[in-house]
Structure formats: structure tokens, C-alpha cells
Automatic annotation (TrEMBL), chains A, B:
<dbReference type="InterPro" id="IPR003445">
    <property type="entry name" value="Cat_transpt"/>
</dbReference>
<comment type="similarity">
    <text>Belongs to the TrkH potassium transport family.</text>
</comment>
<dbReference type="Pfam" id="PF02386">
    <property type="entry name" value="TrkH"/>
</dbReference>
<feature type="transmembrane region" description="Helical">
    <location>
        <begin position="150"/>
        <end position="168"/>
    </location>
</feature>
<feature type="transmembrane region" description="Helical">
    <location>
        <begin position="12"/>
        <end position="34"/>
    </location>
</feature>
<feature type="transmembrane region" description="Helical">
    <location>
        <begin position="259"/>
        <end position="283"/>
    </location>
</feature>
<keyword id="KW-0472">Membrane</keyword>
<feature type="transmembrane region" description="Helical">
    <location>
        <begin position="200"/>
        <end position="219"/>
    </location>
</feature>
<keyword id="KW-0812">Transmembrane</keyword>
<keyword id="KW-0633">Potassium transport</keyword>
<feature type="transmembrane region" description="Helical">
    <location>
        <begin position="426"/>
        <end position="446"/>
    </location>
</feature>
<feature type="transmembrane region" description="Helical">
    <location>
        <begin position="364"/>
        <end position="383"/>
    </location>
</feature>
<keyword id="KW-0406">Ion transport</keyword>
<feature type="transmembrane region" description="Helical">
    <location>
        <begin position="295"/>
        <end position="314"/>
    </location>
</feature>
<dbReference type="GO" id="GO:0005886">
    <property type="term" value="C:plasma membrane"/>
</dbReference>
<dbReference type="InterPro" id="IPR004772">
    <property type="entry name" value="TrkH"/>
</dbReference>
<keyword id="KW-0813">Transport</keyword>
Length: 520, 520
């Protein structure tokens, strides 16, 4: 039995990523120096460690040996490695170092290694589920809370590059579909080389983030959003484009004026859009975006879910939240409906209110939305729009061929016939997705019987779906105004695994568990 | 737009079925005459009506015009027609006729047309969900309660004929898979003509039912089961082979001695087995049965679920039911585990105890089991074993081709490569199944907010899964010791639809809703 995987090549590239992570770490370090409220030691330690470990790993092998197989290993290992190293600032800030006092006040939950790993994995996978009970500057320094936001922005950028430039090379993640699109946002058509593609996407991602920050901060200057200062504008810019959902405000976007919520909606919508199509639109080819069948389906779904929720909120029982009453108020109903529909469908996970206050109908609509997901090639998670679209079209075909058993009718997407292998792959992905959801639900449902808190089946299922789909908040105790800290450590570790495997389109992680991957 | 369906041919065959239904109706009529506790008028009326309507329908068209398309319509219309006509005894018994007193005591819930239709559809689809709050001879006559049992036996026989002889002709219901089996229990191999096949299956079905009745009544005679008299033996024989689950005892099989539970287990196992294979085994070819990959998978699943539940019951909190304590008792743990595992997986729905008393782990295992289902070609419902087996094999293949993108590797079942179209059809079926489950859950969850009772998410989901999968009891209020009567009429009607569509392998009913079916 010979090992057929040049794991040293994968390790070397993980090392390169760790080495480069020292650059973004300079930002929270700068913030820590500026505010002087703690965290300098935490970031200096992490920078030194990340650089040393990264350089050591880099020397293990030659990245030129990277084939498809090594690619799977590298992708899976990268998200694990950055989540472990990225947890160090939380731990150092909570416990201090010999001769250096802790930066975080003693009540913080981030001093536990499991909690710190959960929060970092939730960051880098752009999930946004949190174990922080008290999100405030009283407890955490400005540097630490910005690092939390930044992990999502970095994770989101990684995901865009992964989804558009790397996974298609490995024939994973709906890549076959993107190729089938006409005019398709496939790798070859976009730019000739991965590095160039990555740079283009990086530019679009950073540019849109900058525009959002400027707009949010502009609202503050115009007097429309008193609490949306520069820090908050940057912090939310970081987590919108990543469909991340972390907020330094304990009550998420409910803490801000209605106009802030309206401004964030189109950016969440963009974040859930295929970045290759955004890049094409930015370079003049808007037809590529508006003619894309996934984009049209995606916006149709968003409009439908928004309309459903708006109707329920408008006619439902009177609800009153921080930014005003809802029932019977048209703007307010529409705003919260659009905000929550777009936030959950794109898997951002921001909240403009605690939807646990909604009636049963609204909650079930939102629960289904947890499974929908953004577009392929976006930072959005969950099952993703293109898969649902293909499944719907394939089911329609199945009904037709039941009546006409001899008919040969391909499934068409964007005018082209889809390869049957791609359709099969989509069914397989969706099946594995729900198998993981069910297995996770059973594990968590049984595991939480060990703690005093009682969770309803809906709370358990929503928590599992929200971590596997990188959505973030579930319902009730694990909802947008709740947190995951009270769960048993074993449940939290399982969810770390769900966020990780869900973020990486499942298969690249699952194949690592097969013997065929290592030896055949 | 021309109609392309010769609906008169379908209607004619439905008429023939209604005409023939008068024959089994003679049995409860005889029982009513024997016991003299009411129901004679109910059955005489129904016999007259069924014969008249049947004869009228029969004249509408020529059954020789029946093609595949007319087959779908005939199958769907048959189950609807017998459920409507079969509800008449309940209604007449509850309300009486001019000059004839009611046979059922006034407190009965079966006087409501929605409830009567629910109970009859639940019978003919072998679901076993009940709206009868008080199942006792104090309230209902022996004839009426036997008719309830008999609807299941007739429905089960119809399903066997449908699954083995009719649906394969329409290329529905895993028929492609049965053809792929070697040695396959396909229609052609079994007997040359549908009528002969149907007769063979009928014989096996009736013969095994008779053996079970004799065994159960034998236990009574031997003094092992005082309350398993002839009436009860026949009543339970009728609903075991049908995987029906109705019982004239309010506490289901919990009402009987442990030995009765042990005797029923192998008959439920047989009821969930492909009847074509049973027929082959009975005629000497036991290798066909024991070498069949679905049968091996099926028994493996049953053994696994039994072992899991037995472990949980043995080590769990102390439970005490009618037939004795469980925790720490080996025989008792094994018996209840085997009984409930086999009962739920085969979709029989009998209960040896209220599993709402189990811990979370046991309940979740059982909840998953609601979706498993019996074998193709059996009276069992839900998704069915062969589909899960093919999905598992296909997912394994998907992992392999992720590592080896260029590899061509067919999915094998019983030594033969499966057609990719068949695999796709299985994914499509399973997807539609879960779409219906989710849509049903949302509808019911919202609908039940109109009644004073509060249902948990698990109760709602289990009720929807138990009706769609023709399992019968869900959890808690709709569990084996509960009933469906308190639900809103709209929910009960939706469940009538779920039982109907679920029983007929979904697609034959869904195609009726497409335009292609009627006109293209
Ligand atoms: K998120
Ligand atoms: K049943």
C-alpha cells in the first residue's frame, strides 16, 4: 500500500497561507495600538507564531507537486490551520502572558480553547455563529472584536477564490454547471490563469467592501445613523461581503437605524451573487449577470421569500422592535422582510430583529430559507441556488418522462443541455448535505440532553442547519439574539466540523476519509 | 387542445373494482349479523351503493382502451373511489337511516365526513393513522371495527398487485431496479400474465395471513394470550400483512402478552419483503430471496435499528409498560426494540408501548426509521429499502469519481450494472418525497396554530412523515396511544392527500397534475 498523495506539497501551501496571514493581522494590531484598550501582545504573539509555523511548513515540500488530490488536502487543511492559529489572539487576550495582563475582562467565554476555536472557525467559514455571551467593548478590546470581523472578510475572500478559481480545477462545487452556462463565467473564459483570476476577484471583493464602508460611514456623517461610526462601518463592511454575519453589536443590525438596514440589503444580495458574474458586469458585460439563469432564479427566490414574509409581518400580530413597530406598517414590514429574507437566503445571518418573535408561518419560511443558500461562486453557503434550480428542472423532466417513457429530454440551463453526470453530482451533493444535517441533528439532540437547558427540535435542527450551511444564527436560544456558548463542548466541536465541511462543499473533505483518496 | 387520455377506460376499471368490493363487504355484514350489535344497515347500504355506482362506471368505457396513461388515472382514482365508498359504513353507522337507529354510540368521531374519509383512506392506504378517540366495542359494533381492519387487508392486497404487476408496466416504483436484479423478481420471469401474477401474489398474501391468524389464535387456545380470541386474531392478521397497523385494541399490541409480540415480528418482517421473492421462495427458490441484495440490506437495517434501540432501552431510564419492566431486562428490551424497529421500518405502525416514553436518542432513531420503508414490491410504504441502497451506492461512487474524475464506474445491484436513468429516477423520487414532507410540515405547522392544542415541531413532522410514508402513528399527541382527531379538518384533508399520494409512489398521482399528461 503506497501513499499516492504528495502531502508535503499541500503542507507547503498551507504554510504559505499562514505566512501571508501575518499581513492582515497587522490591522487589528494597529487598532489595538490606536485604542490602547488591550490586545497588542495577543496579535504580536500570533504574528510571530503564524510566520514561524508557516515558514516551517513551507519548507516541507515543493508546491509544484500540487495535483488535484493534493488540492483537496490543501483546501481542507488550510481552513483548519487558519482557524487554529486564528484562535490564538482570543486565548492570549483572555489569559494574558507571563508578565502581561489579560486584555479581556474575566467573564469572557473566549478563554476556553473550544470556544475560541468555534468562534474562529465560525469566522473563517463566514458562518457567524457565536459563543460570545457579552459582545461589548466593556469586555473585549477594539482590536479583538475587529479581528473577529476580519476573520470573516478573509474567509470570504478565500471562499471566492476557492469557488471560482480552485474548486473548478478539481471538478467540485458545481463547476460543471458553470462551464455549461452560456455565456459562462468559467475559469478559462474569465482570465487565463488562476493567479490573475484570483486578483480580479480580490479587487471586486475589496472594492465593493470599500463602497459599502463609505456608504455606511456617510450615513453616520449625514446624521442618519448616529452609532454607525468608522469602526462600525468597517466592521460591518468586513462581514457583509463575506456573507459572514458577525457584528460587534450584541443586537446585530437591529441596533442601527432603518436606513442602515436598507443600505445593507443590496450588499448582501451582491455577496450572494457569483463573483465571476459581478466581475464581468463591472468590466462592462452586464448581460452576463442579468441573463444568467442562476442569478434570475436567485433574485426570484429572494423576491418570493420577501413577499411571503412581508405579508405575514404586515398582517400578523403587532411586533415592536428597536427601530419601530412592524404590523400594519408598510415600510417596516417590507424592510424587515427584505432584510431577513436576503440575510438568511444568502446565508449572511445578520438580524434586523429576533425572528423568534414571529408567528409559526414566518418561522417555518425562514427555516426552509436556511437551506437555500447563495449562488455558486459567491461567499454564500448552504445548498446554493444553482443546485436547487437544476433539481427543480430535473424533477420537471422526470414528470414528463413518466408520461413519455421513450422521450429523451436533456435538462437545460442557460440554453445549454446539462451533462447527466453533473445532474447526478448535484443530487449526490444534496443527498450528502441532508445526511449530514440529519446525522448532526441526532448527535446534537442526544448530546444536549446532558445540559440543564432544554432545546426544542426546531432549535436543534436550526442550529445544525445554520452551522452546516454557514448561515450562523438558528432559532430561539441559538437565534440571532442568542448564542451557542451554553452547548456541550462535544456539540460545539461537532459544529466546528459541520462549519468546516459545509464551507468546503463537503466532498473535498469527505474524500479525505476514503481509502481510494490515499492509495488508489 | 385535444385530450389524449381515454378516461372512460380508467373509469370503467374503477367501476369493476367497486363492483368487486361488494364481496369483501359481505364479511363485516356477516359479523354484524353474528354479533347483532349493529351495522347491518350500514353494510347493506354500502353494498347496494358500491354495486350500483360500480356497474354504472363500468359501462362508461372499454377497459381494452387502457394504456399506460389511463393506468395512472385508474390507479389514482381507484384508491380515491374505494376510500369514499368505504367511508359510508362509518357514516351510516354513526347517523342511522330513516327508520333505522344509529349503530355507533353518539360520542363517536366517525360521524364527521372528514373523519370517516380520513379513517378509510388511512385503511386502504394501509397507513393506520386513526381519528377514533375511543376504540372499543362499547362505542362501535364488531362489524364496523372489523371493516376498519379489512380496509387495510384489501388495501395491502391492492398494493402488492399494484407494485408487482401494474406499476412495473408503467415503469414506476423502482421497476427498473427489479428488472436489473439477478435473479430478478420481474413480472415476465414470475408468470407470463398480469392476471396470473396477481393470483399468485393473492395466494401468498392470503396464505401467510391465514398462518398468522392460526398461530395467534393458537396462542389463545394454549392459554398464552387470554385476550387474543378469534376476532382479535383475524383482526390483527388482516393488518399485519398489509403493514397496516390498525388494531381494535386502543393500546395496540401493548394490550397482548409478550409472546404475541414475538409472533407478530416475523410476520411484519415478511410483510415488508418483496412479495415476488416470497412467492419464489414458497415455490422452492429460496436463493432468490436470501441472495437478493435489497432483502439483505433490509434485514441488515432491521438488525441495526433493533440493536440500537435494544441498547438504549436496556441501559436507559426505567420504563414499565403493561407487559412488564424494560430497563435492565434483556428479553423485554430486545422484544420492544425488535417490535418497534420492525414495526416502524416496515411502516406497519403497531406499537408494543408508547415510544414517547423513550429518551431523546431512541425517539430520534425511530423518527429516522419513519422514512426508511419496506422493500419494493411489499405492502410497506415510505421511501423503501432499494432506493436507500441505490442512493448509498451512488454516493460511494460519487466519492470515488471525485478522486478519479475520469473513472467510469457503474452502480451495481445484485451483480448487474444499474441503468443511470433508474438511478436518476430514484434521486428524483426521494427529492419529491422530501419536498412533499417539507411542504406538508409547513402547511400543518401553520394550520394547527388555529386549534388550542400546541404541537411540537417533532410532533408535526412525525405526523406528516407518518401519513406520507403510510406508517400511521407519529410521536406524542399523534403517537400510537394518541390520535389525529383533534387536528383541524384542513390538516386532516391534507393528510388524506399525503396518504393517497404516498401510497401510490407519488409520481402516478403527480403526473395527473401536469399538462403533458393530458394533452401531449
Ligand atoms: K453567515
Ligand atoms: K402502516
Amino acid at each position: 500500500m503506497t501513499l499516492r498523495v504528495t502531502w508535503r506539497a499541500s503542507a507547503s501551501l498551507v504554510g504559505t497561507v499562514l505566512k501571508w496571514m501575518t499581513v492582515p493581522l497587522l490591522l487589528p494590531l494597529g487598532v489595538a495600538l490606536y485604542y490602547g484598550d488591550g490586545g497588542i501582545a495577543a496579535f504580536v504573539t500570533t504574528i510571530a507564531l503564524s510566520f514561524t509555523v508557516g515558514a516551517a511548513l513551507e519548507r516541507l515540500g515543493d508546491p509544484a507537486d500540487l495535483g488535484a488530490r493534493e488540492g483537496f488536502l490543501m483546501v481542507a487543511a488550510t481552513w483548519l490551520a487558519v482557524s487554529i492559529v486564528g484562535a490564538i489572539p482570543y486565548l492570549v487576550a483572555a489569559h494574558g502572558l507571563p508578565g502581561i495582563a489579560a486584555a479581556t475582562s474575566p467573564g469572557s467565554t473566549l478563554g476556553s480553547p473550544v470556544n475560541a476555536l468555534f468562534e474562529t472557525m465560525s469566522g473563517f467559514t463566514t458562518t457567524g455563529a457565536t459563543v460570545m455571551g457579552d459582545i461589548s467593548f466593556d469586555q473585549h478590546s477594539h482590536g479583538i472584536l475587529l479581528w473577529r470581523q476580519l476573520t470573516q472578510w478573509l474567509g470570504g475572500m478565500g471562499i471566492v477564490v476557492l469557488a471560482v478559481a480552485i474548486l473548478p480545477e478539481l471538478s467540485v462545487g458545481g463547476a460543471q454547471l458553470m462551464d455549461a452556462e452560456a455565456p459562462g463565467p468559467s475559469l478559462e473564459k474569465l482570465t487565463p490563469r488562476i493567479a490573475e483570476t484570483a486578483r480580479a476577484l480580490w479587487l471586486a471583493y475589496a472594492g465593493i467592501t470599500a463602497v459599502e464602508i463609505v456608504l455606511l460611514y456617510g450615513l453616520h456623517h449625514g446624521g442618519f445613523a448616529p452609532n454607525m461610526g468608522l469602526y462600525n462601518a468597517v466592521a460591518h463592511g468586513f462581514t457583509t461581503m463575506a456573507t459572514g454575519g458577525f457584528s460587534p453589536e450584541a443586537r446585530s443590525i437591529e441596533a442601527f437605524a432603518g436606513v442602515v438596514q436598507w443600505v445593507i440589503v443590496p450588499f448582501m444580495l451582491l455577496a450572494g451573487t457569483n463573483f465571476a458574474l459581478i466581475w464581468q458586469a463591472l468590466t462592462g458585460d452586464t448581460d452576463a449577470l442579468f441573463g444568467d439563469s442562476e442569478f434570475r432564479f436567485y433574485t426570484g427566490v429572494l423576491a418570493t421569500v420577501t413577499a411571503l414574509i412581508a405579508g405575514l409581518l404586515f398582517t400578523g400580530p403587532t411586533l415592536d422592535v428597536v427601530v419601530g413597530p412592524i404590523a400594519g406598517e408598510l415600510e417596516s414590514s417590507l424592510r424587515h422582510a427584505a432584510f431577513q429574507a436576503v440575510s438568511i437566503v444568502t446565508t449572511t445571518g445578520y438580524a434586523s430583529m429576533d425572528f423568534a418573535e414571529w408567528g409559526a408561518a414566518g418561522q417555518y419560511v425562514l427555516f426552509i430559507a436556511i437551506f437555500l443558500g447563495g449562488s455558486a461562486g459567491s461567499t454564500g453557503g448552504a445548498v446554493k441556488m444553482v443546485r436547487w434550480l437544476v433539481i427543480l428542472k430535473s424533477l420537471k423532466r422526470e414528470l414528463f418522462t413518466t408520461v413519455h417513457p421513450e422521450a429523451v429530454r436533456p435538462v437545460r440551463l442557460g440554453g445549454r443541455a446539462l451533462d447527466e453526470t453533473a445532474i447526478r453530482g448535484i443530487y449526490a451533493f444534496t443527498a450528502v448535505y441532508f445526511v449530514l444535517f440529519v446525522a448532526g441533528t441526532i448527535f446534537v439532540a442526544v448530546d444536549v440532553t446532558r445540559i440543564p437547558e432544554t432545546l426544542s427540535a426546531l432549535e436543534v435542527m436550526s442550529a445544525v442547519a445554520a452551522t452546516l450551511g454557514n448561515v450562523g444564527p438558528g432559532f430561539g436560544a441559538v437565534g440571532p439574539m442568542g448564542f451557542y456558548e451554553f452547548l456541550p463542548a462535544s456539540t460545539k466541536l461537532a459544529m466546528v466540523g459541520l462549519m468546516w465541511i459545509g464551507r468546503l462543499e463537503i466532498l473535498p473533505v469527505l474524500v479525505l476519509l476514503t481509502r481510494a483518496y490515499w492509495t488508489s
